[in-house]
Amino acid sequence: MYRTHNCGQLRMSDVGANVTLSGWVQKARDLGGMTFLDLRDRYGITQVVFNMDDNAALCEEARKLGREFVIQVEGKVRERSSKNLNRATGEIEIEATVLKVLNAAKTPPFTIEETTDGGDDLRMKYRYLDLRRPLQQSNIIFRSKLAIETRKYMDSQGFIEIETPFLIKSTPEGARDFVVPSRLNPGEFYALPQSPQTFKQILMVSGMDKYFQIVKCFRDEDLRADRQPEFTQIDCEMSFIHIEDILNTFEGLAKHLFKQMIGVELHEFPRMTYDEAMTRYGSDKPDLRFGMEFVELNDLAKDKGFSVFDSAELVVGICAKGIAETYSNKDMKDLTEWMQRPQIGAKGLVYVKYQQDGIKSTVGKFFSDDDLKAWGEKFGAEEGDVLFILSGEAEKTRKQLNELRLEMGKRLGLMKAGDFKPLWVIDFPLLEWDDETNRFYAMHHPFTSPKIADIPRMLNGDHETMKSLRADAYDLVINGAEIGGGSIRIHDRELQSKNFDLLGFTKEEAEDQFGFLLGAFEYGAPPHGGIAFGFDRLCAVMNGQSSIRDFIAFPKNNMGRDMMIDAPSHIAKAQLKELNLDVTVKPE
Amino acid sequence: MYRTHNCGQLRMSDVGANVTLSGWVQKARDLGGMTFLDLRDRYGITQVVFNMDDNAALCEEARKLGREFVIQVEGKVRERSSKNLNRATGEIEIEATVLKVLNAAKTPPFTIEETTDGGDDLRMKYRYLDLRRPLQQSNIIFRSKLAIETRKYMDSQGFIEIETPFLIKSTPEGARDFVVPSRLNPGEFYALPQSPQTFKQILMVSGMDKYFQIVKCFRDEDLRADRQPEFTQIDCEMSFIHIEDILNTFEGLAKHLFKQMIGVELHEFPRMTYDEAMTRYGSDKPDLRFGMEFVELNDLAKDKGFSVFDSAELVVGICAKGIAETYSNKDMKDLTEWMQRPQIGAKGLVYVKYQQDGIKSTVGKFFSDDDLKAWGEKFGAEEGDVLFILSGEAEKTRKQLNELRLEMGKRLGLMKAGDFKPLWVIDFPLLEWDDETNRFYAMHHPFTSPKIADIPRMLNGDHETMKSLRADAYDLVINGAEIGGGSIRIHDRELQSKNFDLLGFTKEEAEDQFGFLLGAFEYGAPPHGGIAFGFDRLCAVMNGQSSIRDFIAFPKNNMGRDMMIDAPSHIAKAQLKELNLDVTVKPE
Q1: Fewer CB atoms < 10 Å away: N or C end of chain A?
Q2: Complex confidence, ipTM
Q3: Using CA atoms, how far apart are residues A500 and A508, in angstroms rounded to an integer?
Q4: pTM of the predicted protein model
Q5: DSSP characters for A230-247?
Q6: How far is B249 from chain A (nearest CA, A)?
Q7: How confident is the model at residue B587 (pLDDT cuts 50, 70, 90)?
Q8: Are A315 and A294 in contact (CB under 8 A)?
Q9: What torsion do the CA atoms of B510, B513, B514, B515 make, to the nearest 10 degrees?
Q10: Which of A143, A172, A223 sits opposite B572 (nearest CB)?
């Protein structure tokens, strides 16, 4: 037997017991006649003592141990003379009588402690060492518990977890698929699912009524900092429901998870239409931990002779409280330059400072103090506040101002850790027009139902009408992060065909790619809808983190590469031949 | 609101209530002035009544409904005059006042009832209709509950569920990988995991201590009747353990699942070495629901002048009870021919019948009645029994006799439904020699540890010695089905290198494919081991079924094809180009 107890288990009540522990050497200290070892496993750390006077040979053995050696120790539990009350086992120690080295260890390339000196690349290459750090372990354990609580709640609500297939069919709609060549069907390919979307709808047609799954999904995207080619979602679908049923059920799930996992009671889940969110915050995922809402100034700022404003579709700003005296001209210049970076692309940044000694503004020569006072009143600005104002094409300007709002929220410490502000954003547009490709795209996905009131306009309207259609689609946003989204689905073959039509599918393409679903709609499809939560994102948001990577046991880097196993990699010629494939690039 | 109750919910206590139900029309009966509908959802069936006298228009509407129409009905619950006590809702019915067709349905291509007239192909193409059948729904719900109970038990034992990646690295060892071309890394491929083997070992090196996962795995095999290219396993790994710890933990899991899911108390999990299982049953997964053990006859049957036996390495048989009088010569001939089919390949089948009127045998002219009586005594045969005897090369003969034993067990009704006989088969060979490719293969996998006592022989032995090495590998067998298997792993770099060496890996190949694991072993790898249960198989065995397909929501056929979505399929040229691939076969 390798151990009678783990390294986090022994207490004062065990004093006198003979025990065996196994674990990793966290550190060793030689103090003259004594050697102290901190022995670590995932449960904790226990101090082990070797005494030169009692057993010189054993003590000498202990002195040879390096960091991260795996050892087994037998000994007696005794009370420590100097206790460490920050550690659960800190009142006791083991007086070692037997020491066995189970495995030696080379010196690790970075320190394995709460904070580490390892850079990202090194930590990803030696992920097995990084995962020994208590912080990383607690992230992975958090994730595991979050899955347990999710399943507990979904089960309590009558949902059945059903596994949908991973080897499915490639469809060009949406993001890029990862594909899998089929050896048994030469020249043909499976695709890995971007989501179980069509299968969960099929499960509704089959009468499963309430489905969920915690499931891996795959997207072959050009990876951004915080995207992973494989990611996990809590995927759900319900039959015979309206939008209220879904929002209530998943509001319940979010409340349950926040309560059980981090002891936070979420109260209010306000609802806001997409249009309202864009107007008030310039974002479909506003962070409601702070206000700083958009105020539109077209009425007060246009037609006063300032050509920049006069030619703008929209003049809009935010009010930052209490920084008029502290933000210097240099600060303002830096902020303007920050807004002018290509990532944001603002042409400039107008400000109005309401200082003790008067109003200062970059547009002071175009507007009178009375004008600027009237602006301030519209914003509810007080002495000490600063207005930041942007102008230009409405949609673009709102997006730029959203960036500024978030930046100012951050700078002014308004995004408080431990403060969680959920929000349902509803009534998304059904379709987005893309000028470049000259076609509509589904804002959510091609199976999303228009709002019932909009169906007649969808079936009979002209091209312009289509741009104004609203969908029964919704996103759950917490602290500015999109936790998940979903929609009521189309369950009628004609309406689904019309939607494919608007999205530029020919009849043949629609039949070829989604014929099974269109067919299923003819054999008694119930009204249904669903939602999916991003599981990785939820882990990060609940822990106040912005990166999902630390909550994934084996994440990939920005090139989609697993640095530890060094994948992807070249495969054997014989494998390619069996798959009837040629690679058209030369190996490096 | 689509419903106030589901179709399995209403009882006598609800009589008088106004309710709304939604569901599918199971069937409709017109009885003169009345129309009765059976309304179905996954929860049950409720009878709905339309009365021509009360509301002729509504009744006419109801008469237009076809099978599988999706409807919503409002009405009052009333007591039925003729009750159906076989149905949970059979004491009440709904007196309909409002009827709304939510979706029409074409006539389904097969009947949607407990038994169906649909063939396999049709049912797979219309899987959404097949899944409406209560039997299929209960299979899927069983699976879902089995996952819940598995997670409950594993969590109670301190295991953490950790998601391992799906996009990993291809390794030529073992079965064929499915591969996934990487667009971002031109000419390179990921592979889908055949199991999370190396990752779970890495998790042990990272100190996660107890890992489990219910996880999809992938194998690109030539599919046999009951194999699927994607399948699910309960995958586990533990650190600081010996073989006993693993067997006890997973015996506990099996007991928990059988108790909770089907109310069966499993008592004894006997253990048998691989050698013993092969000797006594000719199989490493013997069905212990019945005896009919092998008895070897070399001592009694050889050197008596019957050249077939004399030249054989092994003469071995089984005793079938009580069929001497009922099995005719024709039956014996048929059985012999069954044994001679190429799938089994026996040269012939010797029998000895102990009949009331004497002993009858195909080898009567070579052996005296006393000889044959002595055989019978060795078998414990009584009057009425029949011995079946095979001879030849030992290993081959045992395998043939195993087939006969199973066939006779089936014919004689000895494989009783509801009878569950678990068995641990242990001490498997470490390596298998393959004459054709002239190399060793790992019997379990390349990470399996030899038994500690065999390590010196492994490190220093000659080629022949390697064939006799035993591994700390084990399988759980229930009723002749392999539920799962596992092993204690190698955790020492040198031993792992030696094993790769024996398996024919060059140093470079080992480093290229498993360098990360070999590296991990140098930084403090704990002793560890694990097991995986086949989840699909477990579902089938617990339900006394032989096919796993009915326990998979969307199974593939024997060509790895999803008949419903028609995958795999051809993909667009643009996709191939982005992936730097050419297909070397012409599309049909």
Answers
A1: C
A2: 0.95
A3: 11
A4: 0.95
A5: EEEEEEEEEES--HHHHH
A6: 15
A7: low
A8: no
A9: 80
A10: A172
| B553/A162 CB distance under 8 A | yes
CA distances to A578, B268, B405 from B289, in Å: 43, 13, 12
- Say whether residue B103 is in contact with chain A using an 8 A CB cutoff: yes
Highest mean pLDDT among A505-509, A545-549, B35-39: B35-39
Provide the total of helices (H) and of strands (E) in chain B, helices listed first.
18, 23
Q: What percent of chain A has pLDDT over 90?
A: 90
**How far apart, in whole angstroms, are the C-alpha atoms of residue A115 and residue A135?**
8
Rounded to whole angstroms, the Cα distance separating B176 from A559 reads 26
Subunit contact B202:A105, Cβ cutoff 8 A: no
Model confidence at A225, in pLDDT bands (50, 70, 90)? Answer: low
Query: Which helix (DSSP H) or strand (DSSP E) does residue B210 occupy?
Result: strand B210-218
Per residue in A147-187, pLDDT tens? 999 999 999 999 999 999 999 999 877 789 999 999 999 99
If you average pLDDT over every residue of chain A, what do you get? 95
Q: Which of residues 112-171 of A touch B (CB under 8 A)?
A: 126-132, 137, 140-141, 143-144, 147-148, 151, 155, 160-170
Whether B165 sits inside 8 A of A521 (CB atoms) is no
Task: Flag whether residue B437 sits within 8 Å of chain A, measured between CB atoms.
Answer: no
Rg (CA), chain B: 30
* Contact list, A240 vs chain B (CB under 8 Å): 2-3, 22
Q: Which DSSP string corresponds to A553-581?
A: SS---TTS-BTTTTBSB---HHHHHHTTE
- Dist CA A241 CA B132 (whole Å): 19
List the one residue out of B298, B303, B249, B294 whose CA is nearest residue B276.
B294
Q: In this model, does residue B580 exceed pLDDT 70?
A: yes
560-579 of B, contacting A, C-beta below 8 A: 560-562, 564-572, 575, 578-579
Do B474 and B269 contact (CB within 8 A), yes or no?
no
Read off φ and ψ for residue A481, nearest 5 degrees. -105, 135
What's the confidence (pLDDT) of residue B588?
A: 54
